[in-house]
Amino acid sequence: MNGRNRSRSTKPLRHRVALGLSVALVSTLLQGTVTATTATADAGTGRPDLPQAERPVPGADAPKAKPRTVEKGPRTPREAPKTSWPEPGAATVKIPDAATGRSSATKPAKAKGLPIEI
Fold it and tell me: Could you read off the pLDDT of 1-55 as tens digits, one per residue?
């Protein structure tokens, strides 16, 4: 395309590499399908057979789980829970000055009538 001639020695090499790569990819796909069909074969147990090289580990099944104790009473409350939200309000809080020497970290200042401390 840009006016250069390709040497004739690279063309057969490209074809061989493409052919080899496509054969390798197809063979791996075929190997996966053959392995999948042999793994699904079972002896009526619902599980695939173990390979000849593997041996089962000795052990026992897990013990049966204990059921939970049933709680008495209804599953949901009969009435809605009672809530007590604070009424809206405003308060002025005097914050200690740093010049007086009192540390504000020792005791927070509480706003009267409101559930907040500063």
Answer: 566 666 666 778 899 999 999 999 999 888 777 665 555 555 667 777 767 677 7
DSSP state of 105: T
What is the C-alpha separation between 15 and 21, in angstroms, rounded? 10
Q: Is the pTM of this model over 0.70?
A: no
Instruction: Give the C-alpha distances (Å, rounded to integers) separating 42 from 58, 72, 83.
Output: 21, 48, 62
Residues 6+ apart with CB under 8 A from 109: 93, 94, 95, 96, 117, 118
68: left (phi > 0), else alpha (psi -120 to 50), else beta? beta
